[in-house]
Amino acid sequence: MKRFRLSSLLVGLLALPFGHTQAEVVQVTGRAPVEGALSYAREQAMEDALHQASLQAGAQISGMQLMEKGVVSTDTVRVSTRSQVSDVEILREDTVNGMYEVTIRADVDEAALCPASVQSYRKAVAVAGFGLAQPQQATLGRLENIEQGLPRWLAAELNSGGGVHALDATRISLYQDPRRAPSAETAQQRLTTSVALATQLGAQYVVSGVVRDLALHTPQKSGFASRLMGFSSAPTRDFVMDVFVHDGLSGAMLFQRSYRTEGEWEAPRNEKTGFATPQFWATSYGTEVADILKRAAGDVDEMLRCQPFMARIVRARGNRLHIEASAAAGLRPGDTLKVYRTGTLYNLDLEPRTELTDMAAEAVVKQVQPQFVIAELGGPAERLAIQRDDMVIAW
């Protein structure tokens, strides 16, 4: 089969910087009318195929309607995508009924949420303990420590990425009944306990989750004949977890995703394996779980990278602000932060919402202490009524 070399123009369009993505192999057919040179029709058909392939990993659809005297005068729909296409392979190309057709197979990566982001400050993230929906499933292998061991491993993986500063809050559980999580939230998907935890630890976001399933499945085939035919005698084990990310200021849910995999559990039935031990990682099941955890950490890291850096003002006196941000955030003297006043807005159901008001003021970082930052305003904080619990933000 022939390989197609992308032109420099297409490479410039498709080789954008991307974050963590999951590749998908797709097969599509592009078409273009043959109205002149065959080479031009082929190029147009190829571009159509590449565009269709990129749409397979997600598209953004926007529309606009203009009405004049009750009649629609303009009606437009725009479909755009920033997915990355690679390893393009031509399977077939031919001319059919005046149309040039090209069928390709390609790897498509889902577009990153904010590929152009250059925000360099590390957001403080509290990683809470994960609930275990069916504790009896953890008995085999003594995996009860998964409630703290899994989020602790996730926090270490997030810290290794360099984009966030993950704080170990795995001793704290946000859900009394993990089977119903995140039903502890209000109808508007807000978790008040996440606000309390974030305030306590000085975190901007809270990561939590639930391990839904660790069920073991005994293989149907057993005995010498099955082993001779290549069937494995090891049981398979499920792994299903949900991961949530809440905003520490408002309690609003920013991210929710379910992850599942399975693998062979070769550990002896009477072994006290434990979660995240060398014996656990040595099993095929442990390898599959490690892969899915790395994927989850990458997804959370990418989502948080798209969020602004925010920190609370803990004291405002004169033109000096004390900001709750550690040295690990990456702030340096001379950096500027926008100042926002926090307030409360009530919706139609009289439920409180956190509102941020841009004060059109900037604070310049003067000192970076291990656990807080000192910044200065151009004038007295009292003049703008800036006080404790207001925010500074870097977009």
From TrEMBL:
<dbReference type="InterPro" id="IPR032386">
    <property type="entry name" value="FlgT_M"/>
</dbReference>
<feature type="domain" description="Flagellar assembly protein T middle">
    <location>
        <begin position="118"/>
        <end position="274"/>
    </location>
</feature>
<feature type="domain" description="Flagellar assembly protein T C-terminal">
    <location>
        <begin position="318"/>
        <end position="393"/>
    </location>
</feature>
<keyword id="KW-0732">Signal</keyword>
<dbReference type="Pfam" id="PF16548">
    <property type="entry name" value="FlgT_N"/>
</dbReference>
<feature type="signal peptide">
    <location>
        <begin position="1"/>
        <end position="23"/>
    </location>
</feature>
<keyword id="KW-0969">Cilium</keyword>
<keyword id="KW-0282">Flagellum</keyword>
<feature type="domain" description="Flagellar assembly protein T N-terminal">
    <location>
        <begin position="24"/>
        <end position="108"/>
    </location>
</feature>
<keyword id="KW-0966">Cell projection</keyword>
<dbReference type="InterPro" id="IPR038165">
    <property type="entry name" value="FlgT_C_sf"/>
</dbReference>
<dbReference type="InterPro" id="IPR032388">
    <property type="entry name" value="FlgT_C"/>
</dbReference>
<dbReference type="Pfam" id="PF16538">
    <property type="entry name" value="FlgT_C"/>
</dbReference>
<protein>
    <submittedName>
        <fullName>Flagellar assembly protein T, N-terminal domain</fullName>
    </submittedName>
</protein>
<dbReference type="InterPro" id="IPR032370">
    <property type="entry name" value="FlgT_N"/>
</dbReference>
<dbReference type="Pfam" id="PF16539">
    <property type="entry name" value="FlgT_M"/>
</dbReference>
<dbReference type="InterPro" id="IPR038180">
    <property type="entry name" value="FlgT_N_sf"/>
</dbReference>
